[in-house]
Specification:
about 100 residues; alpha/beta; three-stranded parallel sheet; 3 helices; about 15% strand; globular
Length: about 100
C-alpha cells in the first residue's frame, strides 16, 4: 500500500487489490505483483485473473525461473534470498 501511495503522489491512477474502492481491472491497466519465491499461490491466481482481464502483469521477484515469472509480461529481478533459496544445504539463515 505504501508503494501504491507513492505512485498516487506522482499523479498515477492507482488502486490496491482488496480495497473497497478498487475498480475492475482491464485492458490498458498494469497489475503489479510481488512474489519473492515466485511460487506464491495467491499471487499466481491474481496474476491469472489480471491477464484474463486484459491487463499487463509486472512481477517483482527474486526467482526468475519461478511460475510467476512465466505468467508475467515483465519481470523485475530483485537479487535476494527467499524461502525458495534457503533450504537444505543452501540454508544460511537461522530466521524462521
Amino acid at each position: 500500500k505504501g508503494f501504491a501511495m507513492r505512485l498516487y503522489h506522482l499523479g498515477l491512477p492507482v488502486s490496491v487489490v482488496g480495497d473497497m474502492t478498487t475498480p475492475p481491472l482491464g485492458k490498458g491497466d498494469v497489475f503489479l505483483a510481488s512474489s519473492g519465491p515466485g511460487e506464491t499461490t495467491t499471487v499466481l491466481t491474481l496474476m491469472r485473473v489480471a491477464r484474463a482481464a486484459g491487463a499487463k502483469v509486472l512481477l517483482l521477484t527474486a526467482e526468475p525461473a519461478g511460475s510467476a515469472a512465466k505468467l508475467a509480461d515483465f519481470t523485475l529481478l530483485i537479487p535476494a534470498q527467499t524461502m525458495a533459496s534457503d533450504q537444505g544445504a543452501a540454508r544460511t539463515s537461522v530466521l524462521p
